[in-house]
Amino acid sequence: MVHGLAGLLTLLMGLVDWVTGSELSFSLFYLVPVSVAAWRLGRQAGVAWAAIAAGFWLAADHYAGAVYSTAAIQYWNMAVRFGFFAVMALALAQIRQMWETERTLAGTDYLTGVLNSRAFHELVELERNRTLRYNRPFTLAYLDVDGFKAVNDTRGHSEGDQLLRVIADTMRENMRSMDSVARLGGDEFGILLPETGPGAAEVALKKIQDRLMEAVGPVGLALSFSIGAVVCVGAPESVDKLIQRADALMYTVKQGGRNGLRSAVLDENFGIEAILRRS
Known about the structure:
2 domains, 9 helices, alpha+beta, single chain, six-stranded mixed sheet
C-alpha cells in the first residue's frame, strides 16, 4: 500500500512537472513520495524511491522540451537530484528509527525488558475499550514473588536482579504472542491475557506458575508465586480499579499462606464475584 501511494504521488508530480514545462521547477515536491517511503518502509525503500523520483524528473524534463548545451547536463542534474532525495530519505529513516527506539525504551522496564507500569496501563486501557466495543473477555493478573527479599538479603542485589530477569523471560516464553507481561514494581508483575475467559485463565495462569517454580528451583531458596486475577467478562469501570482488585486478590493469597492463585470474574450483571481458589 505504501509503495502504491508513493508510486501514485511520484506519477502525479511527474505529470505536473511535464505539463508546466521546463521553466518551473517541481523538484522539491518529489520529496513527498520519497519521504513517505522512507518514513514508513525504511532506508532501502527511501533510496529506491529517490532513484525513481529522479528518473521521473528526468523524463518530465526531457518531454517538457528542456534544452541544454550538452546532453550530459540533464544527467548530471538528475544525479544531483537523486543525491539530494537520497540524503533526505536516509535522514528521515534514521529519525524514524531513533523515534521507534525511544518509544520502545519509554515503555520498557530497564531491568527485565518487559513492559513497564505506564505501558501496561495503556495496554490494559486499550483492551478495556475493546471489551466495551466488542464485548470480548480478557484477564488481568497480578503476580508477586514470595520470598524474593531473602534473595537480595542472602545472595545480593545482583543475583536478585538476575532472578527477576529469569522470571520475566519465563513468563514471556510461556505466553501466547498476544499476551503481555509487565514489571509493575520491585518483584511484582502484571499479566494481560486478551480473549481469555474464566476456564482458560485458570489453565494459563497455572501453567505460568508451574513453569516459574521450575525456573527458580535451582536458586535453592523457598521461592513461590502468589497470583491474583480478574477475568473481565464485562468491561471494568476503570483500569486503576481493575489493577487494584487483582492486587487485592493477590494479597489474599499471600495472607492465606502464599504460593497460590485466586481469581474473580467481573460480569456486567453480577459485579465481581470470587470464583476460583487455589493454594
